[in-house]
Amino acid sequence: MANQAHSLPVIRYRKGISAETFEKFLQKESQGVQEGVDDKLMLRLFGCSPWDLATWGLRFSSDDKTIMIRELNLLLPHLIWEGNVDILRYVLQKAIIHRLGEDIEPLGPLRPGIADILIAREKPDTPGLALEMWAESNPETNTNVIHLLELVLKYWGNSERKQWIPGPFVLNSDDILCIYESLDILSGGCLAPFAVQEYYDAFKMFAIKSRDGRLEEPDTRVGKERERYKTLAYWKSRNCNSWLKNLVAKNTAPYVFK
Question: What is the distance between the alpha carbons of residues 76 and 94, in angstroms, rounded to a whole number?
Fold first, then answer.
């Protein structure tokens, strides 16, 4: 049986379930798995859970966990990730590799369009071709990511390296601090307009305003469903139970999801 620490479930938010149900689901799945990463931030910003981040060989260190998780949460709203958890994971992997002084290219998922074409092709050389496509299309082909990783490499400089025993890429607080400071240097060079803390503060403020702005909205799921039922609004019918009308017409406990 696989070691539980290295067997992390991939959990994705399923449309159509309430925030409360999803949160209970996350709590159940989190037993014995990495805790602490803000699941609401991950869901809102990346459309996935923290366990989608801890895949493709990336794992979280159990040492100085509190500091590491707090710093990692601060990184999440930064625009350099483009709302793509695969870019975030790749940069975390590369930070670990640079800290270890190793020369290895981490793996990650191909872009959906490329993957679909290769799957449809289905020939003996497909795995080799897929690896070539990964090398040509991984996140390091993004200009901002290139600049960030150059700073990450420079950050470690000639620091003493620990010998790496081939295994999972174990993230620690030093890796997070390295990326944090490198992103702030980028902000000084105008490649990213704001510092890490500024992105985080702005996002939290937006989330609060967005949440409060839905207090007067109907008590339905957000997005297309809400717009559909704002048009139908059958709670306004004279035949509707008055108690139900008052209950559904106005949302008094908004979800934290956009």
Answer: 17
Q: How far apart are CA 86 and CA 84, in angstroms?
A: 5
Cα–Cα distance measured from residue 82 to residue 45, given in angstroms and rounded to the nearest whole number: 9
Cβ–Cβ under 8 Å, residues 152 and 179:
yes
Helix, strand, coil percentages (3-state) for the chain, rounded to 5, are 55, 0, 40
| Averaged confidence pLDDT in the chain | 75
Query: Residue 60 phi/psi, 5° resolution?
Result: -105, 135
CA–CA dist 71, 87 (Å, integer):
17
What's the CA angle centered on 29, arms 18 and 45, to 5 degrees?
55
Prediction pTM value: 0.68
pLDDT for the residue 14: 46
Q: In degrees, to the nearest 5, what angle opens at C-alpha 59 toward C-alphas 127 and 104?
A: 50
201-257 per-position pLDDT tens digit: 888 777 666 555 555 677 665 566 667 777 777 878 888 877 677 777 776 544 333
55 touches 9 (CB < 8 A): no
Residues 6+ apart with CB under 8 A from 141: none
